[in-house]
Each structure stands twice: as C-alpha cells, then as structure tokens.
Design goal:
402 residues; globular; homodimer; EC 4.2.3.1 (chains A, B); Rossmann fold; lyase (chains A, B); Ser/Thr_Dehydratase (chains A, B); Threonine synthase (chains A, B); 13 strands; 15% strand
C-alpha cells in the first residue's frame, strides 16, 4: 500500500498533464488543474473496511489525497464534521429527511480549513516558503493559521468589508495582512502582481490544484457517514464553488472505485444570493460559463464572488447531476439563520442559511419531493458573523428582580 | 446491555443518596450532588473494544452517562475533539511531549457544549420545560442552543462584561436574555430568586448534577485517544472547575472499571489568573476550601469566578493526584495566546492560553520534567474573544501595489 495514490495533474479544458512533484498553478491555457490518482491500483488495493479503525479526520482518506509522505501532513484535527438530523425544520419545510453537514466544527470555524489543510500540507511537501492569496476572510484566516503551523510565511489581501474576526485570525497567526478598499477581484489583481514580482506561491482559489482535494473530503465523508448510500439532493452555498466541484469530484472517484453506484449521484444545487448570482444566471440561460456580476452585494459575504474561475466546473457538476442553481434573497437568508438556531439549536453562518432558504423554496416549487433525503451544507459558524444578529439589549440593574 | 448504567445521585459531603429519576439540585446539606453508576455490572458487561465502531462523539460512552433512553439525546455532534501535538512550542518550553486537547472544535466553540449536551438531554428526560442559569457567557450560549434543540425554554442572566458574541448566541437561540451591571455571583442571586418564584429548573454550575457528567467525557476521550495510557500532567483553566472535577471523576471511574492503572493518574493542575486565584490561595495554604476573592479581574473572563461552589472537589482532585494550583498574569496569558497561534496555528481562547503560560512556568520551576507528557486543555476558540487580539490595520488603496 502506498500512502497516497496521486499520479498527476491534468487540465479539464485542454487535457494537458503536469507533474505533482513541482509547484503548479494554472494550465498554460488558463484553466485550473485537477488532481488525478491511480484509480486502477486503488480499486484493487483499497477497501471501505480499511477506514473503520482510522482517526475521525479527513486524513483517513489519505490514499485519495495528494500528500505523498505522512510527515508532511499539517493538521489541526480537521474533518469528519457532524451530519445532523434537522427534523423540526424538516417538518416545517415538508422534507421528511433533512440533514445538515455542519462545517462549523472544524479549525477556524469554517470549511476553508479543509482546503488549507491539504493545500498547505502539499505546499510544505513541495518546499514552498512563502504563499500569497486574496480572500473574502475565512480562507485567508484558515491558510494563515495552517501556514503558521507549517512554518510557511503568508501574505493575505482582504477587502475591508470582510468579516472583522478574520482580520484577527490572520494577524494572530503572524501573517502579513493587507486590507484594501476594494473587492476580492481587486485583491486578486494585487496578489497576481506581487507573486510575479516576489516569487511567492499563489494559492488563490483554484490557482493551486490541491485546495479542491481538501474540499472533496466533504463528499467522501457524506458518503461514508450515510454508509455509502448517497442522499437525493445536496445544497451548497456557491461563491468560488470549490466545495461543489470537490464534492462532485469525490462522488465520481467513488464511482470509479466501485464504492457507490453511478446512477445514484445526488442532484447538486448551487445556491447563490440574489445580489450576486452569476452561476444562477448562466444556469437559467443554459450556458456553461458565467459572466462577471457587476455591483454584487449580499450579507452572505463568503458567496460574494462576481465571477468564479471554476464557474464552468460548477455548472458541469450541476448539469451532470440534474441539479440546479437557485438564488435566494438576503431577507430569507437571515430569517432562516434565526430559524435554524431557534428550532435546531445550531447558530450557522449566513452562507449556510442560504441553503436552507433554498431548500424551502425548492420544496415549495416541487423540485424537492417530500420523501427525498436532502443535505444542506453549512460552511461555517454563525459566531464569525455577529453583525447578522442585530440586537438591542438594555443592561439592567443587578438589584432588579427577574 | 443497558443503554446507561446510571444508578443514583450521592452527596460527596454527607453521603445522602437521591434518585436520578426526579429533578434534583443541591443536597439538603448544600453540597453539589454527583452521579453514580452500577460499576460492578459495567465492569462485567462493557469493554474498551465496544467503543471501536462507535461514532466520534461523546455519546460513545453512553453506558457511563446518565441518559437512560437513547431517544432523549440532544446532540449537535459534540465530542472527540482533537488531541494535537504542539512540538514547536514544546521545543521552546523544554517539554518533549506537549499536547493540546482542543475544545474549540465543538458546537458553540466552547467546552461548555459538553455539559449542556448531557445536562439538556437529562433535563429533557426528566420533563423539564423551562430552565434558568447565570453565566459568564459561554455556558449560557451552549445551554440556550441545546435547550432550543430540545424544545426547552431558557432564561439566561449574564454580566455586561461577558464576551459580546455570547449575547448573540443566546439571543439567536430564542432564549430569554437578561444582561446585568454585575458579576456572575450577582446573576446567580437573581436566578435563585427567580427559580424559587417561577419554578424554572436551576442549571447553575453544579446546582444540577449532570453537567459534570458531560465534562468528564474530556477525561474519557484523553484516555482513549492515548490508548488508555494517561499523560503525566494535565493543566486545566479553572473557574467553576467543573471540567477538572469531571476529568478526575472520569479517571477514577476508569480505574474502577479496570481500564487504567490506579497508580498512573496524571497530576492535575488548576490554572487561574493572578487577578482571580481563590483556588491557588487555598492550595498554597493547604486548605480544602477557598474563600471569596474580592474585586476579581482578568482578561480570561471564563475563569473570573471569585468562589466556586465545587472548590472543595477541585482541591481534592489536585491533592489526590499530587497536582498543584498555579496563577499566571494576564500579560503572560495574552503573550502565550499569540505564541500558540504563531508557532502552532491554533487561535485559542485566553483561558486555554493560561494553561500554556502555566506549563511554561512549571517547567522553569522544575515541577514539570523535560521528558514528561503534558496536556494543556484549551477550552474554546479564540474567535469568541476578538478583543484579546488588538490590532491597528490601515485600509490601503486597491490601486497601491504590495
């Protein structure tokens, strides 16, 4: 048995191959690169039963992850997040089997930890000493902290509107934090110039190929947690869309290994905010790429991405699984965020709440049927977004009886 | 096999017994009550191997928890938090085998989730409809959210200085939040009056017996994660001290079951802040009870408890394991909080950081030896305490190159 069965990188657009032993960013043709494995050997040498005695973290799938040597793993205990039943909410929506995959229970309180754990580990394996990235907040926080653990220096460029707490996370990690008066697209331009000038490794979304491998473990875990019987529908809050691409890749790989049935793939739903819905627009128009969404705005800051580099991969995953793309309003997002807390006891982030608003909407439309099993993916903790719970509490005297 | 082997409640002071099938608070004599199990039957019918295939949450120990019926469990996926190696920090401190049990990776981002998961589940089993408690923030947040999941109404009284984010958590859960211009001791008085008047169930620290059962799972997990070979030293940030009492109870129960050796119990260290160190004072004076600490103050708000109801149990655990009690300054707490993030990539809470400051101090004093295995217990996420990371970042123009 090999620790990892990683074989090479390939371009999903022009099919060119690259080595996993050198630092790689985009393909020459401009497309993101994807990671391939020796599926034939894996199918022969790796079984579901091998997983039983392993630790409850994402490294339990190390054969299907890109890190070749165990000693390069940089871990803070990430993965195997809970898959919770949401029966009260399900009753209200009219969905008998409603579940939530809760990515709040992970280092840094956001699903970004998965991408950075695998990305930073592989960067360490490749000898990276300094990395740089633009971020809407949570990714920068996660990469800074994992990089600190790996002894890698990081440079993080963040819009001033990103969640305040993520500035603290980047700062406390000892990273170089740059806050700008612009959007993540502006931050991306500055990073691109800087990596060209200083030789830092660019770990922008999908510009390095390994973040997606971390994210795909959400799909692997969902499959294993449901004993390899996939749900009917998975709703995912879609900004850059890496998680959705990753989950789809995971399922295709599990089909390749013969661990799940190809005809049983869940319908994947890309959920966006009405104020920033380029994927939804492209889906409605039957297109395979999205257009830049001007003047984007939403309270769910993590999905404020006007044009995702991997839009074509997101749309492919949606089309190939007979899924859909749906936009929800900020009002319904914030309403469902409260609703999930009051009925189910989970204080989730607005991006996660968007998937519940979408599930409710799709159930009303009849696109989701009552008896279908449905997973809403909550990408992070509500406590990272205090401003989404406005409150006005007056301080009372300690001598006044209740 | 029974789901739970719980037998009865007993008073550690006057030895009076009580039923686990009625709502109970303190003993008639004023002491907290502890939970007892049918250890004889457990020893015959339950083995370590039974745990292997179970979910990675604290309910894996259901035989040694007080909830009798599985359907009464109220869970958000809590438990089996990571036990991380801290090798860089260990090198610096001169401790070869330094570990951190990270209670940030749990619902609500604080170890309080354990006590509330078990406490709320048992309250549900006993038919509680409304509960009330004073809180320094995190416990109130956790109990409110678990109570919401259980359909139980909660009333939470909090000092105005408690972490702001915990107000939002209580509010979003739909609980009745009361913020007062006093300390947790003042909040406790108001709760006492109100439960007498309205008949709410009082879930103040140690006033109901089940919170400690949730907290003891930290001890069970540490033992299992280390394959039933306990460390030499465990450092615990001590306010109310329930976790320390719980960990000690867990180890004694494991001895009773024959799963660990009695002579191998770790030395338990109660860590307090210099601005609020009643347990440390009592320990130095060789006393078995503490005195009320006037004008207490510390940046580690969760351990600002001037007089703990369970002080005598904390001191017993310290004395019986040849442990100690040690106070650290707020300066060293905040320094180590940054240090842990920069060297190990974990953004921990100030209470957790206090245990690292204490480990460093005890190593310098020679109380901890180089080759000893040492666990620092981090009780929550740093992101709940943004004010502990002051920063001054100027916003730059998006057109200015890096």
């Amino acid at each position: 048995m090999r620790f990892s069965y990683v074989s090479h990188l390939y371009c999903p657009k022009c099919s060119k191959n690259y080595s996993v032993d050198d630092k790689q960013n985009l393909c020459e043709c401009g497309s993101p690169l994807l990671v391939s494995y020796d599926y034939k050997a894996l199918k022969e040498e790796w079984t579901k039963e091998d997983l039983v005695h392993r630790e409850a973290d994402l490294w339990r799938y190390h054969e299907l992850l890109p890190v070749k040597k165990e000693e390069n793993i940089v871990s803070l205990g990430e993965g195997m997040t809970p898959l919770l039943t949401m029966s009260e909410l399900g009753k209200e929506y009219g969905i008998t089997n409603l579940l939530m995959k809760d990515e709040g229970l992970i280092p840094t309180g956001s699903f970004k930890a998965r991408g950075s754990a695998v990305g930073v580990s592989k960067a360490k394996e490749l000898g990276v000493e300094e990395l740089a990235m633009p971020t809407n907040g949570n990714a920068g926080a996660a990469w800074s902290l994992y990089a600190a653990r790996a002894g890698i220096k990081s440079h993080v460029v963040m819009p001033e509107d990103a969640p305040m707490i993520t500035r603290q996370e980047v700062h406390v990690a000892g990273a170089d934090l740059i806050v700008i008066d612009g959007l993540i697209s502006d931050a991306g331009k500055l990073v691109k110039e800087a990596v060209d000038q200083y030789g830092w490794f660019d770990v922008s979304t999908l510009k390095e190929p390994y973040r997606i491998e971390g994210k795909k473990t959400m799909g692997l875990e969902i499959a294993e947690q449901l004993k390899w019987n996939l749900p009917d529908v998975i709703l995912y809050p879609t900004g850059g869309g890496v998680g959705l691409i990753g989950i789809y890749k995971a399922f295709k790989e599990l089909v390749e290994l013969g661990w799940i049935e190809p005809e049983k793939l869940p319908r994947l739903v890309a959920v966006q905010a009405e104020g920033c819905a380029p994927i939804v627009k492209a889906f409605k128009e039957g297109k395979r790429d999205s257009e830049f969404w001007t003047d984007s705005t939403t309270a769910a800051f993590g999905i404020n991405v006007p044009k995702a580099l991997g839009d074509f991969l997101v749309l492919e995953a949606v089309y190939e699984t007979n899924g859909c793309a749906v936009a929800v309003s900020d009002d319904t997002i914030l309403t469902e965020q409260h609703h999930v807390a009051e009925l189910e006891g989970a204080f989730i982030c607005p991006e996660g709440a968007a998937t519940f608003a979408a599930a409710k909407k799709l159930r009303i439309d009849g696109w989701i049927k009552e008896e279908e099993s449905v997973i809403c993916l909550n990408t992070g903790m509500g406590i990272k977004y205090p401003e989404t719970v406005p409150m006005n509490v007056s301080v009372r005297s300690k001598t006044e009886r209740l």
